[in-house]
Amino acid sequence: MQDTLAQLKRGEKGIITDVSSIHIPLKLLEMGCLPGNSVQLVQLAPFQDPIYLNINGTHLAIRKETASHVLIEKTGT
Amino acid sequence: MSKQINVALIGNPNTGKTSVFNALTGLNQKVGNYPGITVEKKEGICKLPRGVKAHIIDLPGTYSLNASSLDENVVIELLLNKNDKDFPDVAVVVSDVENLKRNLLLFTQIKDLEIPTLLVINMADRMSYKGISLDIDYLEKHLETKIALISTRKNEGIDNLKNLIANFKDLSITPCINASEIDQDYFDNLRKAFPNQLLYKLWLVITQDVNFGKTDRNKIDAVANFKTKSKGDLKRLQQKETIKRYQFINNVLKKGQTIDVTQAKDLRTKLDRILTHKVWGYVIFFVILLLIFQAIYDWSSVPMDFIDTVFASLSEWVKNMLPNGAFTNLLAEGIIPGLGGIVIFIPQIAFLFLFIAVLEESGYMSRVVFLMDRVMRRFGLSGKSVVPLISGTACAIPAIMATRNIENWKERLITILVTPFTTCSARLPVYLIIISLVIPEGHIFILSYQALTLMLLYLIGFISAVSSAYILNKILKIKSKTFFVIEMPNYKLPMFKNVALTVIEKTKSFVFGAGKIILAISIIIWVLGSIGINSNYNNAKVIVNQKINENGFNKIQSLSLQNKQERYKSSLIEDHDNITKNQISDSIIYKTPLFKKAVINDEIASLKLENSVLGYIGKAVEPAIKPLGYDWKIGIAIVSSFAAREVFISTLSTIYSVGSEIEDNDNKTIRAKMESERHQLTNKAVFTFASGISLLLFYAFAMQCMSTLAIVKKETNSWKWPVLQLVIMTTFAYIVALIAFQFLK
Asked: What are the DSSP E strand ranges found in B269-370?
């Protein structure tokens, strides 16, 4: 099974491979959450949710639930 | 040809768009609303080279032309409606050098509408710090535009920008991307159906719910009905479009921008580590809140005392200088005290807006949202509810508007419903004056009891907001998809100009907005207090004098005389260091005839007030509020403050002015008037600890603001929610105040 954005640990990086279009708001795509872009998990909020990401240079936070619909390939830390 | 051109500033949030607007227009700006909706409309005038004048609109921040909120809709509506009087001659897209890639998405969309478009790259001062270099010529060529590289922080490049705006005719209107490539067949059909329209415009109309002016409506309705594709298919096409745009942008930036990523750990990482830490994050947030409340209470007391005194002397001065008559009385007893009641709170409101503006500008507010989301979700709220709940401490109206960026409707509705519980600045006047009357002075550590009480009231407001959210979350059966996206902008030192302009603008609109209501109500209260309802009103003087001549001073009147003497005595001791007992008693004996006259005048005035229309209204509500510890005068103030809470103090000050025509020799401030107010039958102070706490709690919970109810109606599009708010909150307030008074009395 492929990894999702929700499984990244702090500091880990990955490349987005696919996004589930039904579950992901257009706004997130517009902010750069698109296949091929790199992503890094910058910080977890207390209680491990939401997560703070650096997607392709844009810093944003989303909830884990949304993150689980973004497939990635881990590329290390 | 007219010399004035329309310029629209467009850009992502957090790009410094408003700084650019401020740099261009300075103080030549005004803030209003778009007709029919409550979205803020900022416009201003800027003088360009060669005598050209530009009318500049600062459009709400948006990430793209695919609107997901009312604010974003405004942008699209304007750009798609050529007949709008504000339709831009030139669109200025503001971007931030660190987020150029994302900012360009919006730029390419606007270019495709074939509007002359200019690209502003802001925050150029951070380029070297971030290791970014740009090939401007290359970018200009491939984006087919002119680029203004500016720094609003350092005030660089603004003149160049003005020049480029003035030369807008030179801008190319060639689109960046051929959007029809995402589905050739579909777009071909579209072109056949509407041969005279711009294809990309049609596409936007189909995918958005855009409201148009009447002129365009028929034509556009026809387009909007051109569907042949399901919603899901359209969404997929929008995604394809986004991907295509990013491909184009990536290609351009590959050559036009180089970033040297050797910068290891920057300020952001370090600050984030502390500010969003699971312990320190909350501690820092709490300390900041504490600081804000201490500041509001302590720092603003000096200007407030000053304003209070000025208005009291102004009232006195008007009375002495103008000829006696109805107009003078209206001015001295109605309008001036009423205005004083609002002007006095300018320092505090300004402080509050100052702090909120700084938190927003610095980028800290997003961290709070991030930090609080998980906690807030437990109560059916979103992390983004924190912003409305905090700005609700200034005013519930902008706070309820700020809920628009909450994506989930249920979370948004709950936020709207509970926001009025947070302590808005209109409650502040009531709290401050009552706290200063009934809570003793003194300190625990560095915090005064009074500041702590205030803090506690804010806490009560917040707790009731959160707990009612919890209950609403359990009761409301609304299913809506949960999602949550928030940008975490870079930390920035707030720019003085931006903060100052925000504070001035918000304070001004608060004062004028509330000022109108307060002025109107002050006049109404004064008029009602000056109309007698029976013969006792006109004969008050005769009745009182007759009674006193026949029976002498009764118990209450003697007590009131004693009070006046006591107060005079303590003021003598305060003012003179070496005064002897004999000197004091001599002075009191000398002054006593004057005091007697004042007591008689008070008696006449209060008899008049009782027999006025106002008195009858007060007496009518008295049975309902007596169990809460209030008398009929407070009753009048409470009734009138259902228009707006801050009316309470100005109403009381008007009533007490009407109620005592001749003062002791010193001018009386509102607070002093309230302090010396006694119950008519028992001569006990009206504002005691018990009645004070009861009042504080009543104001903490009751829904007394017509403007908030109106905005809730507008934002929820139904009368159901505002009516429920009014009934439930006020009933709850009544019960809590009742319990508090009965326990404490």
From this structure: none
